[in-house]
Write a structure and sequence with these properties.
α8 packs antiparallel against α9. This protein has a seven-stranded mixed beta sheet with strand order 2-1-3-7-6-5-4. The N and C termini lie far apart (77 Å). It is α+β, with helices and mostly antiparallel strands and 329 residues long.
Length: 329
């Protein structure tokens, strides 16, 4: 195994002959190993710098434009052909405490080599390498099978992330229908919608990449490996269908949330109006007797005060009973 002395860069380079590892390879020996029969080199990099990529370009004979793209992240998912090699960009998605983190995996593929350059919070491919090494007969098909294994690993993680988003939506949906609308719920609904859009942007181009790998590039992808990419495309289509379903339900949930909020506000308005009507009775009576007229017959009557109090209480209680019965209070 060859290592670059840099905290932000990790490299693993292994040669495989007839699907079996024949040992680690240094960068300087890559071009010599590629001349061996039935042999390909699998090189994995993390946050590789321009100096290292320049060495990789020389050893594998890669195109300078592809190397330029691999030097930086923030590339859109794509597949490009440069002579006898392919350059691909795949977005990886991971879920951590209900937050999605995105990374990029750049892939160089040739008839005798596979190079991956990971950027950002991308997923480690060590498990993929171990799994492929446990299947030497399939790995003997060449770097095309290793590419399929990497894409399958990334897509399987899409499924896990999508399952998590569906669970989050179900929790928010339950909160809405339990009549607990809140600002936080609406904010989480919008955040979920944003994450669905980001996930869709990451997975949709993979279908086109798989279709191109199935139909073209026969010199790089072995014939008996092409149908594997059809399975990946099917998985992506199912995820895309799930995204559409959740997004439609999400829009409905937002509308229901707004409807419930409107109903709640109407209930508050009704209650305020009801109490306003009740308070209107004593307000009217007391304002009436608050007028400064000298000759008011009721002022001289002995029972005026208790009668007014009883009348106000009776009218207020009667109105309260009627409003309560009609659901306004």
């Amino acid at each position: 195994m060859a290592h670059i002395i840099d905290n932000q860069m990790v490299m693993k380079c292994v040669a495989y002959q007839n699907g079996v590892s024949i040992g680690d390879v240094t960068i300087e020996d890559i071009s010599d190993v590629l001349k061996l029969d039935d042999t390909f080199v699998w090189l994995g990099l993390l946050e590789a710098n321009s100096e290292l990529l320049a060495q990789i370009q020389e050893e594998f004979g890669l195109h300078e434009l592809a190397i330029e793209d691999a030097c930086s992240a923030h590339q859109r998912p794509k597949i490009e052909e440069y002579g006898e090699s392919l350059f691909m960009v795949l977005h990886t998605v991971d879920r951590n405490n209900d937050l999605l983190t995105f990374g990029e995996t750049h892939v160089f593929l040739g008839a005798r080599f596979l190079v991956t350059v990971r950027h950002g919070k991308s997923l480690s491919l060590n498990k993929v390498r171990v799994r492929c090494e446990s299947m030497p007969l399939k790995l003997a098909k060449g770097p095309g099978f290793a590419l399929y294994s990497i894409m399958d690993f990334i897509v399987d993680n899409y499924v896990t992330v999508m399952d998590g988003l569906q669970e989050r939506f179900e929790v928010l949906e339950s909160a809405i229908f339990q009549y607990r609308p809140s600002r936080q719920t609406m904010e989480e609904l919008y955040e979920l919608k944003r994450e669905l859009l980001l996930l869709e942007a990451a997975i949709t181009p993979v279908i086109d990449i798989c279709n191109e790998l199935m139909r073209f590039h026969h010199g790089v992808i072995a014939k008996d490996v092409r149908f594997y990419f059809r399975d990946i495309a099917d998985h992506i289509k199912r995820i895309d269908s799930a995204i559409d379903s959740v997004r439609e339900m999400l829009l409905v949930a937002m509308q229901v949330h707004l409807t419930f909020e409107t109903v709640r506000q109407n209930e508050v308005v009704k209650r305020l109006a009801g109490w306003g009507a009740i308070l209107a009775i004593p307000t009217m009576v007391f304002s009436w007797y608050g007028m400064n007229f000298k000759y008011m017959p009721e002022l001289e009557w002995t029972y005026s005060y208790p009668l007014v109090i009883v009348a106000v209480l009776f009218g207020s209680l009667f109105l309260y009973w009627r409003l309560k019965k009609s659901g306004w209070l």
